[in-house]
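Slide 14.
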Amino acid sequence: MSDQAIIERVQSGPAVPRLALRPERAVPPDQPLEASWRWLQAQFVPHLARHRVRHLARVLPLVAAQAGRCADASDDELARMLAEEAHLLRRSQRFDRRTVARTFAVIREISGRVLGQRHYDVQMLGAYAMLNGMLAQMATGEGKTLTATLAAAAAALAGFPVHVITVNDYLASRDAAHLRPLYERLGLTVGTVVADLSLDERQRAYACDVVYCTNKELAFDYLRDRILLGEHHNNLRLKLERLHSRDARISGLRLRGLHFAIVDEADSVFVDEARTPLIISAPAITDIYAQTGEEAIGIAKRLKPESDFVLLESQRRVLLTLAGQKKVEAFSRGFSSHWQSAIIRDELAIQALAALHLYHRDEHYLVRDDKIVIIDEYTGRTMPDRVWSAGLHQMVETKENCPVSQNRETIARITYQKLFRRYKVLSGMSGTLRPIAKELWSVYRLAIAAIPTHRPPQRLMLPDRIFATEAEKWSAVMDRVQGLSEKGIPVLVGTRSVIASDHLSELFAGIGLDHFVLSAAQDQKEAEIVAEAGQVGRVTIATNMAGRGTDIKVSPEALALGGLHVIMTERHDARRIDDQLAGRCARQGEPGCFQAFLSLEDPLMTTARSLWLERYIEQLIMRRLGKPELLLLRKQRQMEGLHRQMRLDLLRTDTSERHLNAFTGGSE
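Slide 15: predicted structure.
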């Protein structure tokens, strides 16, 4: 039987039950008692992660029982076996354990023949968890990309359009290209949605059985569809339009609905990036920022901290004092009419102060070709298509003497909390989910299955080294890296900002140490740089989690020397992201080492400002206990709590807007 015949046989079978044109799950408004009950449930959710794995593991003996039968089968026989399982999956629209086990066994055998990669038992556990609408916690390096193929293929064979969602265009394109031969042998089509695709290209991609896309592209495509549909749409109306009009709205839709999602790096998408809504905007009719930006920056430079304004750095907010408001009013006399309104006047001053004191070049943004390019604070990657709202972007442009772009007004907005809760089946995977298990359950109703590692971990965690000043820290980092490099041990140094990366690079250059720098400024080459970080004597500086998702191949010679050595130079706001950096070494049971070099002058210490009582406790920790590591952990927990509260506030705002829209008939 030819390959084409195999594909046609697999794709044949009973028709999928007719689905709505844009199916998605309705999210009812939260009731006080329901929210309280969900919060109570969330207190027990983290403790059940391993119990769920024991329950899921019942599928493994069933898969193993099929291994010999699959191994002895010819390609044609495997195709017939797969067609039978696809028939059962489509007919039931449920993932019965025995049917899933047989499907997994066939897919694993075909993967071994097509890709040369057979799924491990732990990967089948992770895939089965995702088929059941859970989040699979899998350690870094355990092969999450290959794990996703089992869940995605099984769901697609059952007739569900599948979205495999990742954090950047490179990973989406890479994974789709690498796995396409497997999906095509299974009789499934694969699409890729990345930036700069036309409407027709997006429609063709979303029409495929399995679509690899980024969270941002998906969210904006969903918003564009909502704008196209407007307030008055239902399936009957759309079907009638399609029958009677060539210009029916359905012909311009991108998505087929929200059926089944597998979210890679789920913690980054569901939590780290969930503090800011995604907005589609258009040029504002009235644009006061281009005219008043220089005036506002000039006034902001004359205001004094503490007496005229207060910086809440951890919240990225500025508060004007009463004295500051009076000064702004006095300084703006004789300016344009926009300054006559107290509300607008204070807002202009606040945005200018934020641009000057809270948003820093090479940390929060880059200047490229006289344009402001925002840096993703969690990945270190640039986001050239993103702008800050409410005039902040124009203020930063004014501060940097760049051409001021036109201010924009919001047309549509959505949060990740709102978007992903609308999927019929939502699942995902990451290496650091346990610390946020309660929030994931409370917000998304997602449980976690803690998947064991394929091989016992061998990561050596050395004690933190904490210094009083940054200068002492950088000196110690240089000594340590130079000593390791001379022995041939590969080193990956993690920094928090482009400024820190550049500073460390200058220090290394000053002592003649060869190294590679991976930051937002070199984002197009990040995969190549990170992939080579495990070679003998290699020294790599990486901003935050830049290159996350790229496998670091450690050479046999480097493994003999102890493997990759990862050094963290600053703690992040969330411990999870520190753990992700540690996860870059000692993957799949290989040797490796991790150590943190920190100082009491690190940004975390200055950003997480404390009340007087907390400052007293901190002084007590330092003077009586002499344990600065406890102080840093305390600061980190404060930031985690603050960001969690910000996400909760955003969710509450979303809920209140939904209630208002339901009352007024407003759209998204």
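Speaker note: Residues 1-20, 662-667 have pLDDT under 50 and may be disordered.
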